[in-house]
Amino acid sequence: MTQSPSALGVFSVGDGPPRLGARIGDRAVDLTHLFPASSLNPLLAAGPAVWRELHDQLTAIDLDKHSHPLSGVRMHRPFEVADYVDFYASEHHATNVGRIFRPDGTPLHPNWKHLPIGYHGRAGTVVVSGTEIRRPSGPLGPGEFGPTRKLDFEAEVGFVVGVPSDGPVRIDDFADHVFGVCLVNDWSARDVQRWEATPLGPFLGKSFATSVSAWVVPLHALDEARVPAPPQDPQPLPYLRAARPWALDLALQVRINGHQVSAPRFADMYWTADQQLAHLTVNGATLRTGDLFASGTVSGPSPAQRGSLLELSWDGQEPLTLPDGSTRTYLEDGDTVTITATTPGGLSLGEVTGTIRPHSWRRPT
Ligand code: MN
Question: Rounded to the nearest whole angstrom, what is the distance from the C-alpha of residue 187 to the centroid of ligand 1?
Fold first, then answer.
């Protein structure tokens, strides 16, 4: 039996060491005999020719000899994250957040349509799907410290850099550097974030944990999901103009404890991944193997397409009722958030999931 591989990751069986694997159907294929490694990084660094060669070898692999059922393997963080950057690329999300936080101002800041807004996150706290998320504590206001009361998710799509650069990456050279796509949950403590983020942006409200899916889907496996990018007005600077602007049509779904709460489309993003990569290197900043950049919260035009509880509950003013009758403004201890995505052709990008655990009682000394 042969089937096309859809994603790569790192898994172990029993007490065995982590090794590279390919997801084929519901099986994890051991790649030790083709590319021995305990993380994706050596493969990421090897570049597009090697990525394609491995893909071709995989399509001919004997599944009975080299594979394990997915249910019997343990997944690890697929790559060592070098730097982590998070963008803010959905006009719908940015507009909603602007309306919530600045009801008397204009929803979008004046720079928003001129450049992809982003911030540098914390690479060391990127964890693999399935890792439990402990409710963080932090400063909540003047003289106030404690566990966040506004713990949120952000449904995002992440891009994994393979080939380094020693300077700017031209927008049309995206595929020479980026290996593939994963799903990201940018966990956010809204009360901490709101108090600390002026004037320099997110810090403790985001840095406690970011979850990524265990499987990374190579870009070339997503060709069928490519669609023309939405028009942009005003026209961006030349370094942000692709010869043929493209986007990825991925249908995201967000579930809380199994109940769907949102279904945004990635094709609705204003800024695209190639623009983000060109932007983050345009000043000469270098790229490293394992760099991760995420899209920003994926939200669509309708209320059922909002990619965070901040928007879904309008910062707690409009509690969400789940099908089991319970209500949510923000996440409660014990809640499990699962984000999935599929292409128009039905290829699954897997999932990124995490369960909230109570905050630690440790206090700063
Ligand atoms: Mn985010």
Answer: 8
